[in-house]
Specification:
membrane; mainly alpha; disordered C terminus; 69% helix; MetI-like fold; transmembrane helix; 319 residues; MetI-like; cell membrane; L-arabinose transport system permease protein AraQ
Length: 319
């Protein structure tokens, strides 16, 4: 019998041959390919936003030349100075924040109450009311009847025109109702046996258990309220103090695009005409506006991501 000791190098060689023989190399190759593929996918996904940031910090006259990818070629803050040159942008920011917060809170609370009511089998009118709400998703009265309705409600040139029309959402109601249907009925019945009424069951049992779907809906509502500008254009354009951030940015972008034929663009930027024409262009100001409008949502999303991922799986698994 050969009692010679095997060296570490020989041991490593035998281990490699054994791994190759048993097919253990396949998981390593798959993991490496998967890692490289996901890195490429992340780069492709992030590139448009990183390019927008680079363009926003680049001088407008240099941006026209093209060739800007991930790093500004001619650094400048003039694009952001042009956005914040007007004092109205700060008031509009506060209006947008107030609108987004109130719309999100009221929409989540009232829509969840409606969804819980329509999920109760003992409620005899739940089917016809559900059909009525679903019909609103397919048929709309249109812009002109909607305007006259808002006018009859005395909401023209009022802050509440941003809040009241968005308090209930048919699509959100259906999503939340589907999620409530996954809550065990025995849990609700045990609460009734303990003497809890419907409102207490809703507040103490249903509402806390709906956190994942509510976080998802809250993100949808908040993004929609934050990005909306058309209602400000239709209903409150004659009241500057009710203007929203998105509407102000839209007006700034429109004035910048018209600056190609209007040399007086410097009046809204706070510098001489030659400097304004050289440093602020529609492409550069559009990139800066995109960054300014996206930053608040990007700051909120990481805190809601875990709930957002769970909420997207609503209804994907049925027992």
């Amino acid at each position: 019998m050969d009692n010679r000791q095997i060296s570490p190098r020989q041991t490593a060689g035998l281990t490699m041959k054994k791994s190759l023989g048993t097919g253990k190399l396949e998981p390593i190759l798959f993991g490496s390919f998967n890692t490289v593929f996901m890195i490429c996918l992340v780069l492709v996904t992030l590139y448009p936003f990183l390019n927008t940031i680079a363009v926003s910090f680049n001088a407008g006259n240099d941006t026209i030349r093209g060739g800007i990818y991930l790093w500004p070629r001619a650094w400048t803050l003039q694009n952001y100075k042009a956005i914040f040159a007007s004092g109205t942008i700060y008031d509009a920011f506060l209006i947008s924040v107030a609108r987004t917060v109130l719309s999100t809170i009221l929409n989540i609370f009232l829509t969840t109450m409606l969804a819980y009511t329509l999920s109760r089998r003992e409620y005899v009118f739940r089917q016809p009311i559900t059909v009525i709400f679903v019909l609103t998703m397919y048929f709309s009265a249109g812009l002109i009847p909607g305007y006259f309705l808002i006018k009859d409600l005395n909401l023209i040139n009022s802050f509440w025109v941003y809040i009241f029309p968005s308090m209930i959402s048919a699509f959100n109601m259906i999503v939340i109702r589907t999620y409530i249907g996954t809550i065990p009925e025995s849990l609700l019945e045990s609460a009734k046996i303990d003497g809890a009424g419907d409102f207490r069951i809703f507040m103490k049992v249903v509402f806390p258990l709906c956190k994942p779907v509510l976080a998802t809906i809250a993100l949808f509502v908040a993004v929609g309220a934050w990005n909306s500008w058309f209602d400000a254009f239709i209903y409150t354009s004659s009241r500057q103090y009710l203007s929203t951030l998105q509407y102000e940015l839209m007006k700034l972008l429109s004035s910048t695009m018209n600056s190609n034929s209007n040399p007086n663009v410097a009046a809204g930027v706070g510098m001489d005409q030659n400097s304004a024409r050289a440093l602020v262009t529609p492409l550069s100001i559009r990139a800066a506006i995109t960054v300014v409008a996206s930053v608040p949502i990007l700051l909120v999303y990481p805190f809601m991501q875990k709930y957002f991922v769970v909420g997207l799986n609503v209804g994907s698994v049925k027992e």
